Amino acid sequence: MGGLDIETEEGRREALRRMLTIRAFDSEAGDRFADGEIPGFVHLYIGEEAVGVGTCASLEDEDYIASTHRGHGHCIAKGLDPKYMMAELYGKAEGYCNGKGGSMHIADVDAGMLGANGIVGAGPPLATGAALSIDYQDRDQVAVGFLGDGAVAQGQVHEAMNLAATWDLPAIFVIENNHYGEGTPVEEQHNVDNLSDTAQAYDIPGLTVDGMDVTAVAEAVGEARARARAGDGPSLIEAETYRYRGHYEGDEEPYRDEDEIERWKARDPIDSFKERLIDRGELTAEEFDELEHEIEAEIEAAVEYAQSAEPPAPHEAYEDMFAETPPEIERFATAARTDGGERIEDSRSTSDRSRSEGGERR
Amino acid sequence: MTAQAERELETETETMTVREAVRQALREELERDEDVYIMGEDVGLFGGVLEVTSGLYDEFGGERVRDTPISEAGFMGAATGAAATGTRPVVELMFSDFAGVSMEQIMNQMAKMRYMFGGKAEMPVTVRTTEGGGMGAASQHSGTIHTWMAHFPGLMAVAPGTAASAKGLTKAAIRSDDPVFVFENKMIYEQEGAVPTDDEFTIPLGEAAIEREGEDVTVVATQRLVGESLQTAESLAEAGVEAEVIDPRSLYPLDTETIVESVRKTGRLIVADESPLSYGTHAEIVARVQEEAFFSLDAPIQRVGTPDTHMPFSTPLEQEVLPDGDDVREAIERVT
């Protein structure tokens, strides 16, 4: 699953489905985190669905995305299966990363998803790198680097855009401006009116679009993709959006008030798109309810799957560090396989004593 | 594998400098695999600030020997993203002191992606960089930082001490599917040695070389201190002390077994490495030896390295802090 034609009725229906899936997934993830079932941190995408779905709607299956800490929506938009995503959030062996990544590092490179990322601004350089591979091997793909408004202040983001622009790489940078970098308003972090103005520094197109409108995002990314594939280099798209939940679950949100949240909710990307489809006669209220129930059931099934899935075995902690596991790590893996995982601090420390040539203890 | 065994493996050799050996490794791997390309500051037409890539731009063109902006975080990140998506970048980081600028992409992306993604990301990236004092380059262009990378989980680190190992390790690094840092001491670029000409010659990561056999004391030496320790060993032989000199070549993974076997034989160990003395490469080797061969030791282990200073500019100051063959000799004399 990847690209869809938002110009068609079928494509619009699919875009709605994906947005609903993201909202249902993240609502459930928030609840399960609050229940203590999901460990660590979760950063929810609720409210921003149109950006991820609109972006991936204009990509092909083979294209890459590099995500952010708020990555669940990007995963679903790119076509990842909520079942294995939820298993990853639960830290289970069947999760996309075998339980080693969790919410902040969920990834599926084979599906073109180069990972959520715990470091603000780290995704764009990776997208530039993916675009370098594409360009170097002359493949028919593009790479998208998602970033938040806060990441625009990161040096490595500037470096990534400058490099991509200088080398005319097929990259697209999508700023999800949700108006807060963690708890600080965007105005207090940047000196430009529109974050897309920074594109001028690289002489690439910079565009600000309504990030609550999935078709507006899809259109902008579609043009950027065509430009990238024509060999004309990267584009920068700023999508203005809003997150309904805190920066992370548990954020007390002292930096904003309920009125502001309600004003944005009045422009909800799912509600507004639903209304448009109903107005066009492409959807009925009953069909929408049916779709919503179907998706809720799918997410419930994903949770049940994640809950009952097996955790990884302790020895798996020592796997996947390298293509070839060095002896430094292998000895711990061997010990964990042997004793079921109780860590032996140092299995080598007494080896000399048993050796006949080891000398006498002094 | 011992140096002796390697000589049996490879018959034809050619005398060349460390610089030429690295260049030959790069040339051979560029010829061998189209997915391999070089990127870094001034690596193209300029030929690299220390001339290692000189001529490769003319041979392979600007697509495969790519000049980057002065943008270490950007190009280190791009190399990481590229390695995860099907190509095999070989990055030149002009001076290892510049690693700090790019450390985020190294430590949080390059080193962690494979693991965080449950093994589903490939990371065949090589980073070549220069280290070491001795040319008056002062504190920001003379550092020896390999301990950082050898310490950081998810990265491999090699540090050649001879022309042969410069070639063999560079080729092994490029062929590896893991991120490998190649630390080239800039003072030995002109050092000559016999280098196997076979284009399939590589040195497996994690294999030390016994460069000189001896019964009385083991000297584990890296980079420039390999050659200096060998000279010291020759002069001490006249006084009746036979030192065994081991070049670990690979810092991570580290060939503990070869070092430990030697210490079991000699009972004495000197670790000579240009990195700062505290909390470092020396300590790791010492720790592994005491874990495995504590009861074989006949004398306290000695460390030779840079005292915990930065590299000063003025020549007498620089010579004061730089470890050399005399320091190795003094260390040996303290325990034999």
Can you walk through the features of this model?
- The complex is a heterodimer of chains A (362) and B (336).
- Chain A has helices spanning 9-34, 49-57, 72-78, 82-89, 123-136, 155-166, 214-229, 258-265, 269-279, 285-308, 327-339; strands spanning 64-66, 143-148, 171-177, 180-181, 184-185, 206-210, 235-240.
- Chain A is an alpha/beta fold and 362 residues long.
- In chain A, strands 1-2-3-7-6 form a 5-stranded parallel sheet, sandwiched between helices. In chain A, strands 4-5 form a two-stranded antiparallel sheet.
- In chain A, helix 1 packs across helix 2 (49-57) and helix 4 crosses helix 10.
- Chain B has 2 domains: 3-196, 3-Layer(aba) Sandwich (Rossmann fold); 209-335, Rossmann fold.
- Chain B is built from 13 helices and 14 strands.
- In chain B, strand 13 (269-276), helix 11 and strand 14 form a beta-alpha-beta unit.
- The radius of gyration of chain B is 19 Å and the shape is globular.
- The mean pLDDT of chain B is 96.
Query: In whole angstroms, how far apart are the ends of chain B?
Result: 27 Å
Query: What is the string of SSEs of chain B from the N terminus onward?
Result: HEHEHEHEHHEHEHEEEEHEEHEHEHH
Shape of chain A: globular
* Domain module count of chain B: 2
* CATH class membership of the largest domain in chain A: Alpha Beta
Architecture of the largest domain in chain A, according to CATH?
3-Layer(aba) Sandwich
Low-confidence runs of chain A: 346-362
Principal-axis shape of chain B: globular
Number of domains of chain A: 2
Quaternary state of this entry equals heterodimer
Secondary structural class of chain A: alpha/beta
